[in-house]
Every structure is written in C-alpha cells, then in structure tokens.
Amino acid sequence: MSKPSRVLYWFRTDLRITDSPALITALSLPDIKAFYPIWCWDPSYIYGHRVGLNRWSFLLESMKDLSDQLTSLNPRQKLHVCRGSPEEVLPVLWREWGITHIVWEKDANAYAKIRDECIKRLAKEKGVVVVDVPGRHLFDPDLVGRMNGGKPTMTLQQWQNITKKIGKVEQPSLTPTILPDPGDTTLRYSRKEYKWDKVDMNAHLRTGKDTCFDHFTGPKGDFSVPTLSQMGYPPSTTSIRGGTTQAHLRLNTFLSHPQAVATFSKPHTAPTALEPSTTLISPYLKFGCVGVREIWWGCKRVVEAYKGEKTKEPENMFGQLEFRDMYACAEALQPHFERIRGNSVCRYIDWGLQNQYDERGIEILPRPRGEEEDERRFEAWREGCTGFPWIDACMRQLKSEGWIHHLARHSVACFLTRGQCYISWERGMEVFDEWLIDWDPASNPGNWMWLSCSAFFSQYYRVYGLVSWPQTTDKTGALVRKYCPELEKFPDKYIYAPHTAPLSVQEAAGCVIGQDYPLPILDERAEKDRCLARIKNAYQLGFRGADPEVLSGEADKRLKELHEKSGASTVKSEKERDEEKGRLKREREGDGTLDGYVKRQK
Ligand SMILES: Cc1cc2nc3c(=O)[nH]c(=O)nc-3n(C[C@H](O)[C@H](O)[C@H](O)COP(=O)(O)OP(=O)(O)OC[C@H]3O[C@@H](n4cnc5c(N)ncnc54)[C@H](O)[C@@H]3O)c2cc1C
C-alpha cells in the first residue's frame, strides 16, 4: 500500500490548467488526501527585478483567472498566494500542512535553476519529495543541451537536427476535470514585519503605499491574489488583458482562420499595422497561460487539413516556436547569456554604455554615467524622442502597450546598437526587460545579440532604414500618427521624416520640428557608416565576451587602435556636428524633401 499524498502544486510560469504535464503528474500521485495549488509572491521578483506596470497587471490578471479556473474544477479550491520568498514560504507550508510532495513545472533558465536547487535541498532535509516536470518548451532545453554535447544551440538548424533524434513534439496533456480538496489551510505562522534591504528596482513606479508583504496570506488572510494598489502602483496602460481564458480565445481565433495559419510568414507580416499582424500570443506563453504544445498541435491540425500552398520553417508558425526553444537551449547552457562579459558566445564590440564591473568582476550598480553623447542618445531612444518618427512610435508603443511587433523590435534594436547609436545591447535589453509583458530570460538577450550581430547572426551590413523600411508596409504612417500624435497632421510624404518638410508644411501641421517634436538626434547615414566600420574592426579582431583580453581591457585598447588606424573614429567631430546642424537647419527651412532625404540615405 502506498502512503497517502499531501501535495503542494507550485505554480510559477505555468498559469493554466490545460496542457500541463506537471499538473497532470501531480494529480496522478497516489491516494491524494490534500491538494494545495500555491503561488509564492517572491520579494526578489517584486523588488529585485525590473518589471513595468503592464507586466504586473498582466500577471495579476493571469493569477486571478487561474484561481477562478481552479475554483471552477472544485469550489473549495483556488490559488493560494503566500507573500514571501520560496525559501521562507515553502518550508512553512510543508510543516504546517503536512506536505509529502511538491510538484512544479521545470524551468531551465539560470535564475530559476539556482532557486529550484535551493528548494530541492530544503525539501530533502524535510523529507518532502520534489517532482519537477518539463513542459514549458517543445523539448526540455537541458535534454537538448546534453544531446548537443553540453553546448548552447546557436542555430535553428542545430536545434532541429538534435530534436529530430528525440522524436515528435508531445501531444498536449489532458485538462483535469476534477481537483481534490485542499486540506485545512490554517497557518500558525505569521510574519511580524517584512523589509527588503536591497535596491528596489521598481521604486520609481510606486505612487502609493506598498503594503504587499504586510501579511503572509494577504490583508484578509484568505491567500488572495494581490492588487496593483497593494503594491503601491497606479493602473497600467496596456490594452492587453492577461489570463488563460484570453490566451485560449486568442489562440482559437487564430486557428479559426486556416489560411492565415497555413500561410503564416513572419517576414511578410507588417510591423506598422495598428492591429497586431502576428498572433500576440507571446505574453501568454511567457506566463504559461497557454501550453506550447496546444499551439503546436493546434496549428499542425489546421495546416495538415489545408489544401493550398503552405509556408515552411523557419518563417511559418512552427519556426517561430522553434526559435523560442532554440534560445531557451542556448540560455540554459551558456553562462552569462544576458551580458557581454564572461559570455563566450557573444562577440566583443566596444559599444558605448556597456555594463561596468569592479575589480572582483561584480557589476557596478547604480551604473556610472557614460559618455554624454551616448547617454543623450540612449535617453532619447528610451523615451521615444529621437526625431525619427518610426523609432519613436515603436518605443512609445512598447512603453504604453508592453508589446511591439517582432520587426519593430528589430528596428529599434538595430538603431540603438549596430545601426546608428553604437550603444550596448545590454542597455536596450534592460529597457525591454522592464517594458515587455512577454519578457523572457532567453528570448530577450538572445534576440538582442542577434540584432546587434553579437551572436546568432552576422550580416552587420544589413541595416534597417529609418524612413525606407516602415514605408515598405505603410506609406501613410498610421502607427506614427497614433503614438506620436504631435505629428498627426503631417502629409504622408513627410510622416517618417518630418524635419525635411518645409517650415510652411510644419506650421500647417501644427508641429514645428525642433520645437514641438525633436530634430533627429543623429545623421542616419553618417552614423551607419561609422558603425559599419567599427563593427568590421571588431569582427576582424574576433574577441568574445569571455576572452582574457576582454576581461583585462586589452580588447578595448586593441579596438581603439584599429579604429584610429582604419579611420573608424569613435567620437563625432565638432566640424561634423556643425555641418549636421547647418544641414538640418537648411532642410527645416525648406530645401529638403522626403524624396531627397530617402535618396540621400541610400
Ligand atoms: C530585440 C528583441 C527582443 C525580443 N525579446 C523577446 C522576449 O523577451 N520575449 C519573447 O517572447 N520574444 C521576444 N522577442 C521575439 C519576438 O519579437 C516575439 O516573440 C514576438 O514578436 C511576439 O509576438 P507574437 O506572439 O505575435 O509572435 P508570433 O510571430 O505570432 O510567434 C509566435 C510565438 O513564437 C515565439 N517567437 C517568435 N519569434 C521569436 C523569436 N525571434 N524569438 C523567440 N521566440 C519567438 C514567441 O513565443 C511567439 O509568441 C524579441 C525579439 C527581438 C528582436
């Protein structure tokens, strides 16, 4: 006879009851006497991780929706939210609720691994059985990594070759139809006071009193899902609603258009569209509101039944999901994937505003101020005030919605790094980290390395035009008009380069450039040429982030010498600045046209 089980199911980034191999495993444990679905409201995430309001609201909505789903399976059930770190919360619950097993969905990323190893040690000491079950990806990133000789997967082809040997993507798990009761939820444990004694990364967002950790089980002692106001936050601005119900609505709507599914071609979707031209499923995948196998097999069924011509990998939907897995396998196997220093897959390029480290190799925070010109560019990029409407519209959309199209991400990432600004991808990644709802610890740094040609991709001479590129999908500038309303009345001809409009046109549009909207912060073509020359040098020297020359600073010295020798100077000369000012002034006074501007950028 097996012993009765008292099970803690620890929800993390799997806020669903559908397609959850871990949940099904938990429910199949023998003779379950009590089943507690729980969430640890972890201060190291709440205070120690940069998270914008839109992601917070999405997460809270997703937790609430999950809780409702659990209640719909059993009216005595809900998500039990405990305020505290897993190391504090879990041993309390194990002890007080007599837990025999703890089950969770495996998370292969670096931060989660450290946390989970710590919990496994604690559980072992207390005699609690840990069951962690892969399910977040198409294939377990650790398994793929092992089959790749312990190395990160750096191309999709590599990932595909390995996973072919594993077999097919598993079918989605069954959705449970019943849930056992929780046992007694009384806790004798209570916390007197909680103090976060490190830097609160989200302090700048708080407008009210933060009462988040005043009570272990919530203000009413009922394990309720926290609210934005308990965190001291104002309402969010996004129109994207969280939750597994929304996720399934979105997926089913997509699947109900067979042609769209079967002919999905990522490069041919429009970043300029006002309504997302891709699935917008990423925020839901990020928090596990939908299972990845549900999407995979949902698309498979539709595509197989479709009679017309179909698109292929990598641009079809399967390719998109595979990219997500490829980055997860790279991150799981590559130390320091999220930064340059110590990252052996990342090319070393002497960007401005890189992370700074002390002599022990510890990152210096708050970050020391860099070159003024770099700081000025970075700030303008972040705030959507570069004077390039396409970049500004994308950045403002990102800030207000928490999501932008993949090719919009391409544009802004290319501009900040290798396109024009020559600023470290680490800084751009950090802004995405804060503002994206779908922020992912593998996909975000991975794509930033791709876009900056630091890893995964090396065609650094392919740079997105700041005017010509958005024009390929929308000549009317609809997205610019929405997110940069000060430019709303400009004629189509000038919408992506309003500084080239004659003053009379600017006045008629009610927006004088340099006064009501910024002049471009840099010369697109001159800076592009400078970036190309410098990146060519970096490629020639071929240093990677973990090379001793990078760690000692020798790489910077060698690159500087090469830039000087090759004429790829790092600083803008006074003369160039004056010339640029004069040219912009002339254009503003009327001798510039959009056609002329586009021609000059070619
Ligand atoms: C600089 C930069 C940073 C990025 N940061 C993130 C991030 O933090 N989190 C994130 O989920 N995606 C990130 N992406 C990838 C991609 O832009 C988004 O996944 C995609 O735009 C989400 O929209 P969608 O759900 O409509 O995508 P769809 O095109 O509908 O694709 C479906 C799903 O496939 C996956 N996917 C598609 N493309 C990629 C890709 N290139 N890399 C990884 N997964 C992909 C996503 O899970 C996506 O939801 C980033 C891309 C760039 C260029």
UniProtKB/TrEMBL annotation:
<dbReference type="InterPro" id="IPR036155">
    <property type="entry name" value="Crypto/Photolyase_N_sf"/>
</dbReference>
<dbReference type="GO" id="GO:0003677">
    <property type="term" value="F:DNA binding"/>
</dbReference>
<feature type="site" description="Electron transfer via tryptophanyl radical">
    <location>
        <position position="425"/>
    </location>
</feature>
<dbReference type="GO" id="GO:0005634">
    <property type="term" value="C:nucleus"/>
</dbReference>
<dbReference type="GO" id="GO:0005737">
    <property type="term" value="C:cytoplasm"/>
</dbReference>
<feature type="region of interest" description="Disordered">
    <location>
        <begin position="555"/>
        <end position="602"/>
    </location>
</feature>
<dbReference type="InterPro" id="IPR036134">
    <property type="entry name" value="Crypto/Photolyase_FAD-like_sf"/>
</dbReference>
<dbReference type="InterPro" id="IPR006050">
    <property type="entry name" value="DNA_photolyase_N"/>
</dbReference>
<dbReference type="Pfam" id="PF03441">
    <property type="entry name" value="FAD_binding_7"/>
</dbReference>
<dbReference type="GO" id="GO:0032922">
    <property type="term" value="P:circadian regulation of gene expression"/>
</dbReference>
<keyword id="KW-0274">FAD</keyword>
<feature type="site" description="Electron transfer via tryptophanyl radical">
    <location>
        <position position="448"/>
    </location>
</feature>
<protein>
    <recommendedName>
        <fullName>Photolyase/cryptochrome alpha/beta domain-containing protein</fullName>
    </recommendedName>
</protein>
<feature type="compositionally biased region" description="Basic and acidic residues">
    <location>
        <begin position="555"/>
        <end position="591"/>
    </location>
</feature>
<dbReference type="InterPro" id="IPR002081">
    <property type="entry name" value="Cryptochrome/DNA_photolyase_1"/>
</dbReference>
<dbReference type="GO" id="GO:0043153">
    <property type="term" value="P:entrainment of circadian clock by photoperiod"/>
</dbReference>
<dbReference type="GO" id="GO:0003904">
    <property type="term" value="F:deoxyribodipyrimidine photo-lyase activity"/>
</dbReference>
<dbReference type="GO" id="GO:0071949">
    <property type="term" value="F:FAD binding"/>
</dbReference>
<feature type="site" description="Electron transfer via tryptophanyl radical">
    <location>
        <position position="351"/>
    </location>
</feature>
<feature type="binding site">
    <location>
        <begin position="278"/>
        <end position="282"/>
    </location>
    <ligand>
        <name>FAD</name>
    </ligand>
</feature>
<feature type="domain" description="Photolyase/cryptochrome alpha/beta">
    <location>
        <begin position="5"/>
        <end position="138"/>
    </location>
</feature>
<feature type="binding site">
    <location>
        <begin position="320"/>
        <end position="327"/>
    </location>
    <ligand>
        <name>FAD</name>
    </ligand>
</feature>
<dbReference type="InterPro" id="IPR005101">
    <property type="entry name" value="Cryptochr/Photolyase_FAD-bd"/>
</dbReference>
<dbReference type="InterPro" id="IPR014729">
    <property type="entry name" value="Rossmann-like_a/b/a_fold"/>
</dbReference>
<comment type="similarity">
    <text>Belongs to the DNA photolyase class-1 family.</text>
</comment>
<dbReference type="Pfam" id="PF00875">
    <property type="entry name" value="DNA_photolyase"/>
</dbReference>
<feature type="binding site">
    <location>
        <begin position="438"/>
        <end position="440"/>
    </location>
    <ligand>
        <name>FAD</name>
    </ligand>
</feature>
<keyword id="KW-0285">Flavoprotein</keyword>
